[in-house]
Specification:
Layout: E1 4-9, H1 13-24, H2 26-33, E2 37-43, E3 60-61, H3 64-68, E4 73-76, H4 84-93, E5 97-100, H5 103-120, E6 124-125, H6 137-143, E7 149-155, H7 158-170, H8 174-183, H9 192-195, H10 198-212, E8 222-223, H11 231-239, E9 242-254, E10 260-272, E11 284-291, E12 295-302, H12 306-326, E13 348-358, H13 363-373, E14 378-385, E15 401-408, E16 411-412, H14 413-424, E17 429-438
Parallel strand pairs: 1-2, 1-4, 2-3, 4-5, 5-6, 8-10, 10-17
Antiparallel strand pairs: 7-9, 7-11, 9-10, 11-12, 13-15, 13-16, 13-17, 14-15
Amino acid sequence: MEPLRVALLGCGVVGTEVARLLTTNRAELAQRVGAELDLVGIAVRRIGGTRGLDVSPDLFTTDALDLVKRADVVVELLGGIEPARTLILEAMAGGAAVVTANKALIAQDGPALYAAAAEHGVDLNFEAAVAGAIPLIRPLRESLAGDRVRRVLGIVNGTTNYVLDQMDRTGADFGDALAQAQQLGYAEADPTADVEAFDAAAKAAILASLAFHTRVSAEDVHREGISAVTAETVASAADMHAVVKLLAICERTVDAEGQEGVSVRVHPAMIPRSHPLAGVREAYNAVFVEAEAAGELMFYGRGAGGQPTASAVLGDVISVGRNRVRDARGPGESAYADLPIRPMGEVITRYHISLVVTDRPGVLAQVAQVFAEHGVSIETVRQQMLPTQPAGVAVEPGQRLARLIVVTHSASDSALAATVSALSAQESVAAVAGVTRVEAAE
């Protein structure tokens, strides 16, 4: 068969590695695909040099639109929404298969991209959009297509996992751990997308869409970042033989009337040290999938970086290339279930609540009464005397303070949130020092 023309959009860390693999492994890739993969152009913002690649400078172009019109396979590694969306749609209209690592675009406009791929009879693959080199998208789309996934629980952002891991290992506060992550290149100069969980929320939307055959966008995901996680919270988790992780949690739910729905959320949570996800260190990713027939599956590996992500991209290129050779297509969108997205208030979860209270008789009873009034059951309570007054907490002269650590049984998130709000209004509660959800209980 004639060579397949491959166009590469973007030549950053991942794009450079993809171009290197396409050229240096050309003969071997041709054997796997059944046709040669001919890199016909690399779209960049500015022409200059070869980015350390052993390729002709003539391959580089600033005219991305012209490039996609003369390709059989377009690899989009620009990121963001535009011009990536326009270029992908143009590529599909011209009959090209598309491989992308653009999680934000898939999470926002996945249905429109699927529809365009179906209209023009081409493939849309995005294995690298979630968890880098970890094979995860294809197992959900294909390997588990005959199963019924109940839950997806995962660490899908390496930056936040590194920060929280350092806080757990060294006792560092959030700011110091983040600064170290930036020095090592794990965090961007502006880390907002990572630490405020925008990145993880987009990935959670993609995973939920695939797992539950339902359209889920990033806007449907309840999102909380890690910037409010304190060293004290991490230490309190350690006292419970737990760790704090930023988790993406996608669940199939059933309401009181027996109607199924989908819950998708990303937030910090305490998990037991015995849970497989608790041992995921540094910038690694891991995703735990629970299915009816397959049972529990765990996918683990490097979730970012040039080489790991390029590995996932090349896997998709080979897949769409093989389909092209056979005049076939891979799976498209599966949204037949169309399950409703449940609001966060309906989610059943548990809370770890840290309260600073005045140390006098009857306070514990008052606190317990607030929980009872909101229908929330207390699992454990620990009390610690505070030798010094916490910053920002005002008390009367001579008044002693204590810390109450309350862990609840399962209740709706709305009931738990209302309990916390009522506690903060209590005269005996000087401050609600921290609230963290507790997941994956043994």
